Amino acid sequence: MADTVFIYALKCPMTMHVRYVGKTKNLKKRLYSHIYEAKKGKQTHRHHWLSALAVIGQEPIMEVLEEAPLDQWQERERHYIRLYRSTGWLVNGTEGGDGLTPEKAREFWQNPEYRRKQVEAATGERNGFYGKTHSAETRKVLAEKCRHEVPWNKGKSGIYSKELILNNRLQKHRKPIARYKEGQFVDSWESARALCRELGWDRRHVQRVLQGTKHFNTIKGYTLAYTQSPAT
């Protein structure tokens, strides 16, 4: 058929759910571009999903839904997006016939109703991974990837505003810690992190004592408790 485009679907290779509907003239190139863009770290639902597949060595399955005339593809794409949107699995950011730009993505996510629907569509039994667990082999692959992944901000400077840095230094979320020996106050610290850094204590042990975890009443003979403010 002359002057046509393919309306296609990307399916999850594990559940066979249709996750994305799009259009293209060249199926092979479009599939490659999807995978390549996901590796570049683009921030859309589609790219996050494709990246998650890549981590476990999987790729989406591309299936042709229809070969549509050039002057009708927008409506046909919208038709299939409406059809598969009802399943709750679709990651398309628009209703079709246009394409999603970063500006449009931000506009969508500023809408509380849109965010609510997206969350509901991936919650509980609607989530393709609901009730499942990763195999030992998959967990090993994920751990290995994280171990060798270079943080995106490593070696970069000037990427955070002065306001953000100042706000983080205020440590509003941190709670001062008081240390006691046989019921008598010894000293206090601005946070559990500061205490552990200064004394070389294990943070997990400290947190368990603070939370009152069974069998973790003391640490090195001391009891700990949150306090209103550190001693000066």
Automatic annotation (TrEMBL):
Domain GIY-YIG residue range list: 3-90
Coiled coil, from the record: none
MF GO annotations: DNA binding; endonuclease activity
InterPro entries in alphabetical order: GIY-YIG_endonuc, GIY-YIG_endonuc_sf, Intron_endoG1, NUMOD3, WH-like_DNA-bd_sf
SUPFAM superfamilies: DNA-binding domain of intron-encoded endonucleases (SSF64496), GIY-YIG endonuclease (SSF82771)
Pfam family, one: NUMOD3
PROSITE patterns assigned: GIY_YIG
Family that this chain belongs to: To endonucleases of group I introns of fungi and phage.
Protein's name in the database: GIY-YIG domain-containing protein
UniProt source species: Hymenobacter metallicola
